[in-house]
Amino acid sequence: MTIVCRPRILLAILCVTMLVSCGNKSKSPTGYALDGRTTEESQKRETIWDVFGSDNSDITVQVNKYLWAASLEVLDFLPVQSVDPFSGVIVTGYGTPPGGGRSYRATIYIRDPSLDARSLNVAMQTRGGAAVSEGTVRAVEDAILTRARQIRIADGRL
After folding, report:
1. pLDDT tens digits for 120-132?
2. Phi, psi of 68, rounded to the nearest 5 degrees
3. In the chain, N or C: fewer CB atoms in 10 Å?
């Protein structure tokens, strides 16, 4: 006997399984669930959507203003396509560095408010779509970090 698996049947079984697992648990006479939490704590998650957490769309990521300014200044030969200061992403178009013959494109991600190397992530590629060497990316990151430190010192608010 051959069993034929159809996507609709598998999807229906998955949906039923998820719905069954979302059912309310019955209250225990002692007031505690099997995992040691009170039944009130256990019942806070009533639907599958509660597993994904609450909507924190009003929370913004803080970015370091010195890294932001230094990134735009160091890569000023690249045309800026889009910026999002709330998430810390700068996307540039293709451009040729002064004295260079190859065209590059960069995406800069500043993910932390601290002036630290871990806060900065640079991804570069050539016009052909090939990734740029690790040494070149590291040199660009070092140049951005150095310029950010210079801007911070010039700002005078240490």
Report:
1. 999 999 998 888 8
2. -65, -50
3. N
